[in-house]
Amino acid sequence: MTTATTPLTTHKVGGRIGAVIEGVRLGGDLDAETLTAVRTAILTHKVVFFRDQSHLDAESHEAFGRLLGTPVAHPTVPSVDGRYALGIDNDHGGRANQWHTDVTFVPAYPAFSILRAEVIPPYGGNTLWSNTAAVYASLPEPLRVLADSLRGVHTNDYDYAAARPEARTAALEQHRKVFTSTKFQTEHPVVRVHSETGERTLILGNFLQKLAGFRAADSRAIIDLLQAHVERPENTVRWQWRAGDVAIWDNRATQHYGVDDSDDHERTLRRVTVDGDVPVGVDGRRSVLLSPESVPEPSHGIASGASTDGSLAEAA
Ligand SMILES: [Fe+2]
Questions:
Q1: Does the keyword Metal-binding belong to this entry (predicted)?
Q2: CB of 246 within 8 A of CB of 269?
């Protein structure tokens, strides 16, 4: 097979995270050389941005996702049109204005998320990402040692009312009902060893409920201490969307935050997630699903990859 000589260029956006890639037309037909360059850029910069990808539709978005891995459905939220794309709209209560890593309430949460902007408001609606490998590396050594030893329990059944006191709308209540239709609890190491880069990254964020072995107040204080480093502006990048943009992030090495400041203007994005592996801590212990006994296939008829690698029998 001949390899195309690609004019791909990469420009960093922030000092510690984020790069814009130019000269690539995303799709299921991307040549191997360009694909390798894109994957390497994602692993290096943690989130990469592409402008002018309006040619993508649900099918080609998913086809491109298959080049990075196996697309997976959200464990509880139904997909758009039976495909592996999840709608991220601001009119159904599913706003993401909390720092989080996607789907950490299951063991093998997604490796990559690919977000495509369809409708962007005239102002606001930016997304921020933080590089948790850089965060970990920047911690004082005693705090790294502490973090290495911690395990955290993540759930999708977190307290929405406390998180979103201003937004008790019928739409939010309905979204919550769907989002928590199966209630998951998973124990992860707070520090995972990234299976592709070998870096140590943090598993924290909004789905983290408590640290194993701590009283609630101590657990909260330690989580807040670590999370504050994740949210330091130096560890983040902020993206101002245009319609047709695509952002791809390494979900194993980032947290992100969708800023909810575009009032009632429409904001519609589509996300395809790609199957991840079960995290392993620095002590070699893997993540464990606490409940339910297994990750059920979503009722909406397409497979979730959340339970595909036999991890659920692994209790260390
Ligand atoms: Fe998200």
A1: yes
A2: no
